[in-house]
């Protein structure tokens, strides 16, 4: 049985990796490792189909090292021993270890010395957060890189390559992929290139040619992806229009409109986008006006991810209704953006000497930390002292809003403390 299209199209050079330019682009960390021939073991984590295996394959192809792939859950210690023996014979082996979060202690203990001596360059792949799911022993010997969902333009690029490639792709067939069909492939798979290529290959293999050409239309791609294109345009912007309308409806407290756009995203099966967008909305638009609502959204999103569709729609709907009817405040995002704008424009100064680190020998000679007043030693655990650099000592980033009881109380406390801090 021939290998799937997604497998055949895996890149053999870093330059051919689709997306992930923050890691493999010119001058970026993995590109630098390959160029300097200073590979270190790493963990790549992110959603399925976003390029973890492709990056490992491209690293191996670019360095000409042997490349082996194992699964931490299903392959045995003996399989690891075979790789280790090969590394001993040939010098270096790049080992892609899928589901590294499921590596047991026996296999871990076998691997560690081989990572130490550099014979095996481990590239662990996982969809789980490695800071939580991977053991400290492995984490301490690897660099951790996040692999992000691919953008639609990245997937379009990969589709075009697959249609043109005569050796590994579909280039030997006369295929006409309609623009709306391509846009659905690029947007409905939620950044999962493997799913997009699998859908494309299924469509190509299961569609009869007409006058020597396989015409892949929108209905055909919908059937092969099992995803409906509820609205589309020639530029494929509708996917983002729905997401934008979803957030703006919640921000504008229109419950019925927000539920409508949620329904469109649910029907499209786009749980990753819903989860991310709801979490952003909870902190960006509701924020300090109602912090418990944000916490409940996180719980609802977690429940939805565990349930999956169709049941996931229930906690998501509850969260959307609560966010729509909640008081709103964007003071948090406005405050941090104002502070970041100062940093980017160079409007900052030196940390006051009394706040500088005083835990090393010679710090006192530099005047660091000498006049620092420990607030807990004073009444009400507060004492007046300057914390901001001299250059911006009077700046105010946080502009409180009073749309909810919680932030109203924060605003009163903020005003009291600021007045005391700046009193003459």
TrEMBL record:
CDD domains: AAA, HLD_clamp_RarA. InterPro entries: AAA+_ATPase, AAA_assoc_2, AAA_ATPase_RarA/MGS1/WRNIP1, ATPase_AAA_core, DNA_pol3_clamp-load_cplx_C, MgsA_C, P-loop_NTPase. It comes from the Bacteria. Keywords: ATP-binding, Nucleotide-binding. One of its GO terms (biological process) is DNA-templated DNA replication. GO terms for molecular function: ATP binding; ATP hydrolysis activity; DNA binding; enzyme activator activity; single-stranded DNA helicase activity. Residues 38-150 form the AAA+ ATPase domain. Belongs to the AAA ATPase family. RarA/MGS1/WRNIP1 subfamily. This is Replication-associated recombination protein A.
